[in-house]
Amino acid sequence: MLSYRHSFHAGNHADVLKHTVQSLIIESLKEKEKPFLYLDTHSGAGRYQLTSEHSEKTGEYLEGIARVWEQPDLPEELLPYMQVVRRLNENGRLRYYPGSPLLAKHLLREHDKLILTELHPSDYPLLRTEFSRDERATVAREDGYQQLKSKLPPQSRRGFMLMDPPYEMKSDYEAVVKGVVEGYKRFATGTYAIWYPVVLRQQIKRMVNQLEATGIRKILQIELAVRPDSDQRGMTASGMIVINPPWKLEQQMKNVLPWLHKTLVPEGTGHTLVEWIVPE
Ligand code: SAM
Description:
It contains 10 helices and 10 strands. The protein has an 8-stranded mixed β-sheet with strand order 5-4-1-6-7-9-8-10, with helices on both faces. The chain has a two-stranded antiparallel ribbon with strand order 2-3. Helix 6 links the parallel strand 4 and strand 5. Bound molecules: S-adenosylmethionine (SAM). S-adenosylmethionine binds next to helix 7. One of its GO terms (molecular function) is 23S rRNA (adenine(2030)-N(6))-methyltransferase activity. Keywords: Methyltransferase, RNA-binding, rRNA processing, S-adenosyl-L-methionine, Transferase.
C-alpha cells in the first residue's frame, strides 16, 4: 500500500523538527574532514511546492515552516536548515520546501555520498530528476529497510542513516526497530535516526520498549508536541529517536526546542522533550 504522499504534509511542524535534527547531525559529521555516507531509507520526492494543490489542501506548512520563515532572528541551531530553505526561495517568498534528501544535497560536501530510496511511482521519478546531475548520489526505487542490510557498513566507515517511513502500515513501527538492529549489526558506530508520529502514545511506548530491549546503547529521544496526547484521530506530536547522536545534539536540541515550541505553537499547548532512552 503506497497511498501516502508527503506533498500533503511537507513543511509541517513535524518536518521542521525532523529537518532541524537532520541538519544538526550532518553539520556535526562535517566537523571531521573524512567523508561520510548519508542514507535516506524513505526519501520522498525531494522538493515540494508549497503553493501546490496538495499543500494548499491541508495548509499544514502554514503552522510549520511558514511560522519559522517569518521570524527575524533565528537561533543558531536553525541556521544550516534555514539557509537551505532560503536558497530554494531566493526571491524572498516561501514557495519551495526541501525534503530530507534535498536538505542533505545542499549540506553535504563534494566527497560525501548519498544513498536514497523511494518506492512511490510518482515520487521516485521526481527524486531521480532532482539528483540526475549529482554524482555523489545513488537513487533507487527499492525498499529502504533493505538498504540497511545491503549498503552497510559504508566504505568510509562514517554514516548517518535516516529512517522516515509513513507509518500508514502499523508494521512500520516494528520495521524501524528491526531496520536499526540490522544496520547496527553491520555498522555499530553509525548514527541512526528514526522519525515517529505520536498518533497513539501506546504505539510509541511499544517501539521505545523494543528499542531498549535490543541492548543498543546511546539512544536519545527528541519530541515536540503541539497538543496533549489524545485517543482521537490525528498526530499530536512527532519525534526523532537518535542512536549514537553527535555529542552536541542533546544540548543543541535543549537550546532550540523551547524556541521552536513557542514559534510553532503560539497557543502554548503540547510539550517538548529531550531524554535518553538508553544512555552511553
Ligand atoms: N524523508 C522525507 C522528507 O523528510 O522529506 C519524507 C518521506 S515520507 C514521510 C515517507 C516516504 O516513504 C513516502 O514517500 C513513501 O512513498 C516512501 N516509502 C514507503 N515505504 C517505503 C519503503 N519500504 N522503502 C522506501 N520508501 C518507502
